[in-house]
Amino acid sequence: MSLDRNDPMRGWTAQKAYLEAIRGRQVVEEAEEVVEEIEEQIVAPEPSPEPEEEPQIEDYTVKELKDFAREAGVVGYHGMNKAQLIEALA
C-alpha cells in the first residue's frame, strides 16, 4: 500500500484512526469510572475481635473455687481460703 498524497482515502484513514483513538480513550475513562464506583462500594472487613483469654484460676472468686472443689470432690473445702482452694484444685 503506497502513501500517495493524492489518494482521497488518505485523509479518511487518518480521520478514522483519530476517531478510534478518541473512542479508545473514552472507553478507558468509562472503565476507570466503573472501577472507582466499585471501589467505593467495597466495604473493608471489620477486624476480627481479639480472642478472649480463658480466666486463670486466680481470677475466680472463693465461692466459685468452692463450687469447683465440691464438684472435684475435694475434702474439707468448706474451711479453705482462696490460696488453699487454688492449691487443692491445681
Describe, in plain words, how this protein is organized in 3D.
The chain is mostly helical and 90 residues long. It has helices spanning 8-41, 62-72, 82-89. It is rod-shaped, with a radius of gyration of 40 Å. It folds into 2 domains: 1-44; 57-89, no CATH class.
The geometry reads as rod-shaped
Radius of gyration: 40 Å
Q: Give the distance, in angstroms, between the N- and C-terminal Cα atoms.
A: 95 Å
Oligomer: single chain
Poorly predicted ranges:
none
Number of helices: 3
Largest sheet: none
Percentage of helical residues? 55-70%
Secondary structure tally: strands: 0
Structural classification? mainly alpha
**Order of secondary-structure elements:** HHH
The overall average pLDDT, rounded, is 82
Number of domains: 2
Beta-strand residue percentage: under 5%
How are the SSEs placed, and which strands pair?
Blueprint: H1 8-41, H2 62-72, H3 82-89
Helix pairs in contact: 2-3
